[in-house]
């Protein structure tokens, strides 16, 4: 067996042993076609006030700018589908945010992943990323053969749907590459487009970020949500799962085994009244490890007011 094949096998075994649900590998290259899509998206202002999406365009489309000499982009998926759901009627929180913050959890796993690779393969250069870095994570997952980009913009895997986080490890190690995922299994379905409460899903798999409930409730830092959105949030207080909940590929989602993603009791059961009565001090204590921290106390209160009145 060649060294490349041996290293590839080692990496895929480590990923599986560590509980990652998929591991695919793509040859590092400039993402030319994706660069055009991204440029178009930015030119149309679909990032709204997410200024960070304008930054580091060159890094975002070229992995060798993030890791000099980059040869491979390893993509890992991590299932977050929760075993318990919120009861009906309470202010809704996106499934990814019911437990501990995935940024911390996955970053720790990525560090260990790289360390384990080095132990078996030798000294390599590598950097792990999850969400916040300038990496087109969905594009790399598709390039690594893991799944396709659905009409709702999410990366969907045939085996597990889309309730997955995506993480990438860019390395200078040469590996065997998976074939890109070419097929598109959305077919004639338009369930996500029809169900999106704010009509943020446009043709050709373009999601207008600046119209998405997830953007308004998590990313928008302004004190007010535009009045034009009034009555459209369908009780979503933090994030939105509508376009994934209706997707037929998510019918077979299985609960995650990661204890860190077990829903916090408060996140699951808080009623509108509990949220209204929550003090800033209690917010900071209860949600110290939760993704809800991103919106801050004022953000959560703003969202609550917006969906209540
Ligand atoms: C900015 C951002 C947002 C913004 C903007 C969303 C958007 N459409 O870009 C907002 C705040 C609205 C958002 C919302 C959500 N997000 Co978000 N977000 C990101 C972030 C940081 C960057 C995405 C980006 O580059 N957008 C720019 C656009 C142009 O890129 P794109 O939509 O990814 O599309 C690229 C490729 O998919 C490809 N592509 C798209 N269509 C097609 C079609 C063809 C034919 C081809 C070849 C290629 C292609 O080209 C594009 C690149 O130019 C990523 C993390 C990361 N670093 O990648 C997470 C990320 C995409 N988000 C994620 C999640 C979970 C969500 C939410 C589900 C959270 C929630 N429940 O509230 C929603 C889903 C909304 C939706 N339907 O897309 C996950 C997605 C996991 C998955 N299975 O796909 C990511 C990857 C974070 C992570 N590490 O897990 N998000
Ligand atoms: S997350 Fe909600 S608002 Fe955003 S595109 Fe999907 S359905 Fe529409
Ligand atoms: S709901 Fe239908 S169109 Fe939308 S992503 Fe899922 S399969 Fe594709």
Account of the protein in words:
- The protein has 309 residues and is of the alpha+beta class.
- The chain has twelve helices and ten strands.
- The chain has a four-stranded antiparallel sheet, with helices on both faces. Strands 3-10 form a two-stranded parallel sheet. Strands 5-6 form a two-stranded antiparallel sheet.
- Helix 1 runs antiparallel to helix 4.
- The chain is globular.
- One iron/sulfur cluster binds at residues 152, 196-198, 200-201, 207, 212-214, 240, 242-243.
Task: Please render the helix and strand layout as text.
Layout: H1 3-17, E1 22-27, H2 32-43, H3 57-61, E2 72-79, E3 92-93, H4 102-121, E4 126-129, H5 137-143, E5 148-149, E6 155-156, E7 164-171, H6 191-195, E8 201-202, E9 206-207, H7 213-219, E10 236-238, H8 242-245, H9 265-269, H10 272-277, H11 280-286, H12 296-308
Parallel strand pairs: 3-10
Antiparallel strand pairs: 1-2, 2-7, 4-7, 5-6, 8-9
Helix pairs in contact: 1-4
The structure holds cobalamin (B12) and iron/sulfur cluster (2 copies).
Q: From the alpha-carbon coordinates, what is the Rg to the nearest angstrom?
A: 20 Å
**Percentage of residues in DSSP E strands:** 5-15%
- Percent helix range: 25-40%
The shape, in one word, is: globular
What is this structure, in a nutshell?
The protein has 309 residues and is an alpha+beta fold. It has helices at residues 3-17, 32-43, 57-61, 102-121, 137-143, 191-195, 213-219, 242-245, 265-269, 272-277, 280-286, 296-308; strands spanning 22-27, 72-79, 92-93, 126-129, 148-149, 155-156, 164-171, 201-202, 206-207, 236-238.
